[in-house]
TrEMBL record:
Acidic residues compositional bias, start-end: 66-78
Extent of Polar residues compositional bias: 49-62
Descriptive protein name: Polysaccharide deacetylase
One record GO biological process: carbohydrate metabolic process
Domain of life: Bacteria
Ranges of Low complexity composition bias in the record: 79-92
InterPro entries linked to this entry: Glyco_hydro/deAcase_b/a-brl
Residue span of region Disordered: 49-92
Amino acid sequence: MSEKMDKKALKKKKKKKSMVMKSVVLILLLVVLAVCIFFLAKTLKKDQAQGSTQKPDTEQSQDGADATDDTETGDDASSDAQDTAAPATDAKTTAMEQAEYLAATYDYDGAIETLNGVEGAADDPEITAKIAEYQATKDSCVPVNMDEVTHIFYHSLIVDPDRGFAGDDSIAAGFKQWMTTVDEFNKITQAMYDNGYVLVRLRDLVVETTDADGTVHFTPNTELKLPAGKKAFVMSLDDLSYYHSYDGRGIASKIVLDENGKPTCEYVQADGTTVTGAYDCVPLLDQFIAEHPDASYHGAKGMIALTGYDGILGYRTDIAYKTHENLTADQQAWLDAHPDFNWDDECAEAKKVADAIKDDGWEFASHTWGHIRIGDASMERIQTDTQKWLEYVAPLVGGTDTIIFAHGQDLADWHDYTTDNEKFNYLSSQGFHFYCNVDSSQYFLQIRDNYVRQGRRNLDGYRLWNDVHGDVNRTSDLFDASQILDPRRTDVPAL
């Protein structure tokens, strides 16, 4: 009986176990089925979504091409459209940037013309808004008062005052009197910019016309306009020839071109090593205007007045270096130290540098070949000197119609030049029509039918020192000299 009951219980246990296993299998099947249904539904939904974005065959192809061909054609068209749009966008961006730069230099007409040259400019709200902005700014500008345009000038800058001011010889005295340090130049540039001064060209002040026979005429430029509060000024540089007497005095030795073909300076350090960089007015002003384009009207730079007797720009280009005739002791010593010197190559390099300087916005002027005193010199000497400048300097710089007199002298007093002035008649016949002297007053400008004449203010050690320590301050309209004077400038000899 007991054995029978055990068999019955065992059978019941097996049946229960079988039911459990079937239940597990069923649950697993249901899970698998659910997963399959989920993925199937997702696939159907994706197909429907893709199907809804497809165009009918009649829209995709007019020649009965299959679906695959239609899809490829659509991709190609989209790519072509993007390729077409990209250059258009780039052209607009470039034009907008160029226009912004031109407007910053007060060339509003150039900015507007640039934007109008963009395809579809009239229908582009961004461009039309900018054009309206530039036109409004232009309309708000006021004419420059020609009677209030000052002209400042510098000599080569002193990089190392410890060397430039050292000693008690005439060179040291001259450096203290007539030279400005790099730090002083940079501070003046910034201060004048902060005070609203804008650099213009001397020739920007006038409108020049020429008759058929070559006779020139000048009238004031009434279209020279700047925003209210801005003040125009002219700048020039004297003696950018790097004379032999400058050697070892902490001044740059020549103008050279950097890796981008832009003018920079060669400078010999106290230890004798040669480096290049912004060690004089040309590259320093270039850098400032690049960072502050509104410091310059239409990209104007300064006027560089050159002599010729020691060459130009640090290059030994005078004919004496070729003929070895009438050499000074300094010139002979330099030639002895450079036995491989080739005059033709030197002139070619000087011309290359001069061209780059002009391309950079600078202009050249005569400072007379021999740095002569034009007022004291005889007519014979003036003629000889002028012919040397025209023969040995003019071809390297492309000629000029401007003469900046040395030693502050002039052809006459403050009265107008007249046709009975023999020196004026001669220089005019040689193509000079712009004349500059030295005048410590704020403004001196004569615009006459046959010439333009302007006085210049020396911003040098003598002027800065006396504005700080003397009884009369002549630069207060430009800057605060007490904030400019280099502390290494401890004295300036009396003139």
